Every structure is written in structure tokens, then in C-alpha cells.
# Entry
Amino acid sequence: MNSTFSLDDAIRKVPDFPKPGILFYDITGILVNPEAFRYCIDRMIELYKDARIDAIAAIESRGFVFAAPFAERMGIPLILIRKKGKLPGKTFSCKYALEYGTAEIEVHQADVKPGERILVMDDLIATGGTLNAAKSVLEQGGATVTGFFGVVGLPFLNYSKVLGDTPVQTLVEYDGE
# Structure
């Protein structure tokens, strides 16, 4: 990393958002800093250039921002995982629990190929629930999830318990203090 910036410094820490007691890690500070954004994409390429992945699946919506340039540079398809009701074709779907209710995500059936090896990415990995649901929708189509990637990881929220043995890679981690 160039000494003119720190990835940690580019991530805004917003206390009490979206509710009191939560510290929100805002990656938009990376997006307004071309050097930081380039660093993230370059690091992803370094990490996965020799990996056997056939596609990257990105979770709506901030995951799209990082996955699109990665997919283009790697020459692999970008699969969009969206909130329920956002995709027009036949979909695979999975409901999952949130701290305050439930959510559901979907992927186009036509975008998932049996036997494909897929990397799943989001901007931030917290409890792992959304990533685990993404794995489920991809497996419904016969794909194999080879790993999870997040720019930011919050391991103190125990995502490893939810994600099991699937490898997780992040660029920066926070311990919750």
C-alpha cells in the first residue's frame, strides 16, 4: 500500500448508525479516494489471480461496486445477488434471519451454472448471514462457493461460526472496540 493513504483511514467510522450503540463502517470513503479504491481491486486480483474461480457473485449493492472491476480484470462473469423482487427472470431464493427480522435474496437461475466455482463478495462481512444465504442460492443452481471476500471484516461478530469451513478473506478487520 502506498504511504500516502491508509485503507483504515479511508473507511469512515460512524457511531450510533443506524441505531444507538452500533458503529457503522462506511466504505464510501474508499470510493471517493481513487488510490484506495484501486488498492482494493489490485489486492483482490493479487489474492485470486491463481485461484480456480469461474465467476464472482456480488451482494447488492455495495458488493457490486467492488466486484464489477474485479470481474472485468479477471475475465470472469459477474453474478448479481439481489433483494427479493428485483430480478425479472426465474430465480433461486433464500430467506434468512436478521437481527431485526428476516430478509430474502435471489439470483437469476440462468446466471448460475452447475459445477461453477464461485467467489462470493460483499463490501463488509459482519454476522455472515447474508453471505451464507448467498451460498445457498448459488448451491441451488449446482454451483460451489469456493470462498467469501469482504473489503471489511468484523470477526468479533463471529461470522466464522455461520460461514463454516468456506475460506474468508478480508482486506481490513476490526475487533469491535
User: Anything to note?
Assistant: DSSP finds six helices and nine strands in the chain. The domain at 51-173 is CATH 3.40.50.2020 (Rossmann fold).
